[in-house]
Design a protein that fits this description.
With 192 residues, this protein is an alpha/beta fold. It has helices at residues 26-37, 58-65, 78-90, 104-113, 132-141; strands at residues 48-52, 70-74, 97-100, 120-123, 150-156, 164-165, 168-176, 179-186. The chain is 28% helix and 23% strand.
Length: 192
């Protein structure tokens, strides 16, 4: 597993053995960030991210590599949160992030109370936790997301997390290999 592009391009990241952590594949991450930058490498400059169920931190680290100013890595498992720390240290990243070691629902509440307004929210619960998708997307759909905030859910190709959650409406779905990416925005702003 490696960083695809940007400041830390081609640098390797660590993962844990076994199936407890299933990092977003390099290929799927490359597709995701190609969609988000759409030919403009500076598109993510200064952006704020939430990386929910962060695992290895690969998605948030990719965002930092491409110019994000702040990433909140949300991970409840201590071993995974420690792995995110290890990967950040490996790349000598010392600022522009916060590791929030909490369940995603509690972290969303805490970050909202601090008036954190992310431009991008990426969620990638363990695939076997299908109930996490409507729970988290429902909270986000009923929250005060900024008008242009983009929510991206990684999921199994054969699983559909749903089209609408409160004010969040799916605007695009991509499938690659065994995985899918669903993109959501507030219903009043449907452009990607």
């Amino acid at each position: 597993m490696r960083v695809i592009s940007g400041k830390f391009r081609s640098r390797r990241l660590h993962s844990l053995p076994g199936l407890d952590i299933r990092p977003t594949s390099d290929r799927l991450r490359e597709t995701l960030f190609n969609v988000l930058t759409a030919g403009n490498p500076q598109a993510l400059a200064g952006s704020v991210w939430l990386d929910l169920f962060a695992g290895t931190g690969a998605v948030g680290i990719e965002a930092l590599s491409r110019g994000a100013s702040m990433v909140y890595f949300v991970e409840s498992a201590r071993t995974a949160a420690d792995l995110v720390r290890q990967n950040l240290q490996l790349l000598e990243i010392t600022e522009g992030y916060q590791i929030v070691q909490q369940e995603s629902t509690a972290a969303l509440s805490q970050l909202a109370s601090r008036q954190i307004t992310p431009a991008y929210i990426f969620l990638d619960p363990p695939y076997r936790q299908h109930q996490a998708y409507p729970q988290i997307l429902g909270i986000l759909g009923d929250s005060r997301l900024s008008q242009r905030a983009l929510v991206i859910a990684e999921h199994e190709k054969k699983f559909d997390p749903g089209d609408k959650f409160g004010e969040l409406q799916r605007i695009r779905m991509l499938q690659q290999g065994d995985a899918g990416l669903s993109f959501y925005r507030r219903a009043t702003d449907q452009n990607l």
